[in-house]
Amino acid sequence: MATTISSNSFGGENLEIIAFRLHDQEFCVKTTTIREIRGWAPSTPIPHAPADVIGVMNLRGSVIPIIDLAYKLGMKSTVANERSAIVVAEVHNMVIGMLVDRVSDILTISSSQIQPVPEVSASFDKSFSEGIIANENGMICFLNLSKMFKGSDLEDLAA
Fold it and tell me: pTM value?
C-alpha cells in the first residue's frame, strides 16, 4: 500500500524541467535556472579548489567555475567524454557550469507529480532535493540548486 503526499513548494503549477544523467541516475532542475547547455570542453584546473570544482572555463569573456555535479551529490566523480555536457546555471546571481554525463530531455510536468523525498535516517540531509518524480521511464530526482550551492560557497569560488 503506497501513500502519496502531495505537499510541495510549487502549488498547482506546471513546471518546465531539464533532465540529465549522472552515472545511471536521472536528475532534473527547473529550466528557469538554466542559461545554456554546452558540449564538453576541457576546463583549466585551479590550485587548492574545493574537491567538487573541476576548474574554470571561459564563457564569452566571463570565467565561470565548473562543478563535478556527481561528486557534489556524493557520487563518484564523472569522467568527461564526448557525450558529456556542461549545464550552465545561474544560482544566487552567479553563473556556474555543472558537468553531467548527458542531457536527457526537457519536460513539462505538473507540480502534483513531485513526491516528497522519503525519510531515510535522522542524519539524512534531503535539502538538495525538491522531491522525486516518478514517470514511465523511472524516477527523476528534482534538485534544488539554491540549497546545493549556498551563496557563501559561490562567493568563495569567485574570490
Answer: 0.83
